[in-house]
Design a protein that fits this description.
Number of strands: 6
CATH topology: Rossmann fold
Shape: globular
Helix content: 25-40%
Low-confidence stretches: none
CATH superfamily: Isochorismatase-like
Oligomer: single chain
Largest sheet: 6 strands, parallel
Strand content: 15-25%
Distance between the termini: 23 Å
Strand order of the largest sheet: 3-2-1-4-5-6
Number of helices: 7
CATH architecture: 3-Layer(aba) Sandwich
Length: 205
């Protein structure tokens, strides 16, 4: 680790991208898939997003209109959650939380129907076109969409930075377990630091 900045691979390149996963009304307090920690991590996410709005991509998890519209076991998944499908869900739940929605544009929005935004979207092509080598992760949930996206990014060969005070889950145990997994088993490919460290070391000069 670079002792000067607290990051394994040194300062963050100017052309890095902040990928914020699924900070939507669907996961806010009182929503069908409420993630209680969202309020706790929103300040850090908001600060990163405001400071680097042009480099921020917000993903939205978009359920199908009906369970039958999805392949394989996704059908069973949505049969267990019929209230989440498009034919029943109020579209307002799909929107970003207001604190982040106001940043679009210049921030951009990427819709996805899978846990990872690296599948079924143009994300990989976008990152390649922009010569992006580093992705900074925030959002929900640590043990579902963040997990899936982070591992895809590792497989692609991207530098992965997770903001420790910018990810959240609906369960403490699995959140803690995943943070330990990232640190112990992926320590050469995944860096976990707080928002302050990222803000201090993301060089846009």
């Amino acid at each position: 680790m670079d002792s000067k900045c607290g990051l394994l691979h040194g300062p963050i390149p100017a052309n890095s991208v902040h990928l914020c996963l699924d900070m939507q009304n669907l996961f806010s307090e009182g929503a069908p898939w409420a993630t209680p920690w969202m309020k706790r991590v929103l300040p850090a996410i908001s600060e990163i997003s405001e400071r680097h709005a042009e480099r921020t991509i917000f993903t939205r998890f978009i359920p199908p209109h009906r369970a039958e519209d999805m392949p394989g076991l996704w059908k069973d998944f949505y049969r267990s959650w019929p209230q989440i499908t498009g034919e029943h869900l109020d579209p307002v739940y799909l929107e970003l939380v207001p604190q982040l929605a106001r940043l679009v544009p210049p921030a951009t929005v990427l819709d996805k129907q899978r846990y990872s935004p690296f599948h079924g979207t143009n994300l990989v092509a976008h990152l390649q076109q922009k010569s992006v080598s580093t992705v900074i992760f925030t959002g929900a949930e640590t043990d579902v969409c963040v997990l899936s996206a982070v591992l895809d990014a590792v497989d692609i060969g991207l530098r992965v930075i997770i903001i420790s005070d910018g990810i959240c889950s609906s369960t403490d145990d699995t959140h803690d377990a995943l943070v330990q997994l990232y640190r112990r088993r992926f320590s050469h490919q995944i860096e976990i630091v707080d928002a302050e460290t990222v803000l201090r070391n993301w060089d846009l000069a």
